[in-house]
Write a structure and sequence with these properties.
This protein is mostly helical and 475 residues long. 51% of the residues lie in helices and 3% in strands. Helix 7 crosses helix 12. The chain is globular and about 65 Å long. It starts with a helix and ends in a 14-residue tail after the last helix.
């Protein structure tokens, strides 16, 4: 009996020891299985972070669009994108942090046999809209990119797909996603959906505005396709500020706005206003100027020279509203959508209203968003240099200049519109290493590790240099 008790005690002890050893082998901070919603939220934040950041290692488009300048280090402002391998960082974030996580989230949801069919359908459509956004960002950055084979982890050397073919397919995907979304069913919960907090109706509006945006990018290359897509999107697109697609950062770490992390936490005081933008805002008496930038040491608004060393006390810095810790990032908004409607009207597409009304709506909404008043907007629109009937140039110039101003702090979108509309005509940086960058060159890793497909893609687009125009850039 005594031996049995001893044996039982030893067995219990060994069993407990085995359980303890097993538990020690489980990394609680790196789970082997991650919920689909967590992957979706992470991908959404990753996208927002990279398009918001001002890190010279990742996102330099504020300099490229002549809205910000640098005090000391001028490499990126001078179109040197290779020293810090900016294309690699941008590419890796989009493919690995955004698209891979969205794909894994989608795979898990599809395999979930217990998930309500209506909820599943909405979640998959929402994920696909975010995938379209990420792929369109890649196409409009590089041109031909891996697409059909890009998410296959077993394929280490994916082929590059034709940029226009990808863009057309993205429009088809948006058609499906918008039709699939159903307000009668839920999607992700409010805590999982970091853009719309579970509001399906707003995802539908975002999908329509994104389809309109992507269609207009195609317009000079394929007007028929663009017209059809824009006209299908108009009625369902964003039509008020409350519908803006905004990623909402928090006041506390670690979920603060990346600009706060760059400028305040990181102590980067060398980002300053660019002369082109400040001079334009001053010339137009733009009420957004005090929100966009602060004054210099003498109480004046002065822009720095892009590509040239600037004395920090002599030039203006970004305004505190821009880099507040809880400042939101706009992925799509009413302002951009109204400018797009104005352009569509000028192109003769069948959209509601006329170009002047949409142009006025866009400018008014932008001024109100930045803290101005309706009176400020009315006064500004009465300026002959701003008024749609008297402002100089064609519709491309009128819309292009005001869109450039309104897309402040949305640098990637601003770069796209600057390339597409060709207005305003910005000043080349001092010491520029190339002509104006119409694209980023392919990452060095692709050149070294996926050489055959890289070479084919480079030849297909007309050469892997930053001055090569993308297929939609016809002017």
């Amino acid at each position: 009996m005594k031996k049995s008790i001893i044996f039982f005690a030893m067995l219990v002890s060994l069993t407990a020891c085995k359980k303890n050893i097993t538990s020690l082998n489980i990394d609680t901070k790196r789970p082997s299985e991650v919920p689909a919603a967590t992957l979706f939220s992470f991908a959404t934040k990753s996208y927002s972070d990279v398009v918001t950041s001002a890190s010279v290692n990742t996102n330099v488009f504020r300099f490229t669009t002549s809205q910000w300048a640098m005090v000391t280090y001028q490499d990126e402002a001078q179109y040197d994108f290779g020293t810090r391998n900016i294309p690699q960082a941008w590419w890796t974030t989009m493919y690995r942090e955004v698209l891979q996580n969205l794909t894994q989230s989608s795979t898990i949801i599809k395999a979930n046999a217990t998930l309500n069919a209506g909820i599943k359908s909405n979640q998959l459509a929402i994920i696909d809209i975010m995938q379209v956004l990420a792929f369109s960002t890649l196409v409009n950055t590089f041109g031909n990119v891996p697409y059909s084979q890009s998410i296959d982890q077993q394929n280490l050397f994916p082929k590059y797909d034709d940029a226009k073919t990808i863009s057309l397919d993205l429009l088809k995907r948006l058609n499906t996603d918008i039709a699939q979304l159903n307000t009668a069913n839920a999607g992700f919960s409010a805590s999982e959906d970091l853009i719309f907090q579970g509001d399906i109706s707003k995802w539908i509006k975002f999908g329509n505005s994104l389809r309109m945006q992507q269609a207009l990018i195609l317009a000079d290359a394929d007007n028929t396709i663009a017209k059809t897509a824009v006209e299908a999107s108009d009625a369902g697109a964003i039509s008020a500020d409350v519908d803006n697609a905004a990623f909402k950062y928090l006041a506390g770490a670690p979920n603060q706005n990346p600009l706060y992390v760059d400028i305040v936490t990181g102590g980067r005081g060398d980002y300053v206003a660019a002369k082109d933008l400040v001079d334009k805002l001053l010339a137009l008496a733009d009420p957004r100027l005090p929100q966009y930038f602060g004054t210099n040491a003498n109480g004046a608004y002065v822009g720095g020279i892009v590509g040239q060393v600037n004395t920090i006390s002599a030039v203006s810095k970004p305004g505190p509203k821009v880099y507040a810790p809880d400042a939101q990032t706009l992925l799509m908004d009413y302002v951009e959508t109204e400018f797009n409607r104005a352009e569509a009207a000028e192109r003769g597409y069948a959209v509601s209203g006329n170009a002047q009304t949409h142009y006025n709506n866009a400018i008014t909404a932008s001024i109100l968003y930045w803290g101005g008043t309706a009176t400020d907007a009315s006064t500004y629109l009465a300026n002959p240099q701003v008024s749609y009937t008297t402002a100089s140039g064609t519709w491309r110039e009128k819309i292009g200049v005001q869109k450039w101003i309104a897309l402040y702090n949305r640098p990637f979108n601003c770069w796209t519109e600057l390339r597409r509309l060709d207005f305003p005509k910005i000043t080349a940086p001092v010491g520029a290493k190339s002509g104006f960058p119409n694209r980023l060159s392919y990452p060095s890793n692709e050149q070294q590790l996926n050489g055959s497909n890289y070479s084919q893609a480079s030849g297909a687009i007309g050469g892997d240099v930053v001055t090569t125009k993308l297929f939609w850039d016809k002017f």
